[in-house]
Amino acid sequence: MAGAPDLNESFTRSLATVLRQWTRHVDLQFRELGLSQARWRVLFELSRRQDVTQIELAHSLGIEGATLVRLLDRLEADGLVERHPCEDDRRAKRLHLTDGTKPLIDKMKKIAAASRAELLAEVSPDDLRTATRVLSQIETRLELLRSDQNG
């Protein structure tokens, strides 16, 4: 059920502000590892979803394919990512983190967990469950709207 327009606006503005500030907070911490936001986002997503195609990864990150290709070129040159041909479509590439990336990913996960703990320290578990439920409803609605727009 939709709330009053000013409540809707306040909520969405707060959501955007928190996302921007949270991302900036984490970004500053990952810079200590020599990672830009673009690089750590790719590495985190690949750590969650091994064996994805470049197209799937670009879609999941919300970036253009050409932008991702440049990022992957650098990550591959640094020995962090490997590309392998798809068995069913030789034009497509499947992405994998290299074995040498594991220590970096472990450090990233520790930093992210510490950041979450610090930022959410004063939020009750009940409030977190409510917020998670609300965000899930919004995400479901966005997916429905996107599928309607795509045909």
What does this structure look like?
This is MarR family transcriptional regulator. It is a single chain. With 151 residues, the chain is mainly α. The protein folds into two domains: 21-119, Arc Repressor Mutant, subunit A (Orthogonal Bundle); 124-151. The protein is built from six helices and three strands, in the order ααβααββαα. It has helices at 5-31, 37-48, 54-61, 65-77, 102-119, 125-149; strands spanning 52-53, 81-85, 93-97. A three-stranded antiparallel beta sheet has the order 1-3-2. It is globular, with a radius of gyration of 18 Å. The model has no long low-confidence stretch (mean pLDDT 91).
Question: Rg, please?
Answer: 18 Å
Total domain count: 2
Assigned CATH class of the largest domain: Mainly Alpha
Distance between the termini: 25 Å
Q: Low-confidence stretches at least 5 residues in length (pLDDT < 50)?
A: none
What percentage of amino acids are in beta strands? 5-15%
| Gross geometry | globular
Structural class: mainly alpha
How would a crystallographer describe the biggest sheet? 3 strands, antiparallel
Please give the count of helices.
6
Write down how many β-strands occur, each being a DSSP E stretch of 2 or more residues: 3
Helices and strands in order:
Layout: H1 5-31, H2 37-48, E1 52-53, H3 54-61, H4 65-77, E2 81-85, E3 93-97, H5 102-119, H6 125-149
Antiparallel strand pairs: 1-3, 2-3
Helix pairs in contact: 1-5, 3-4
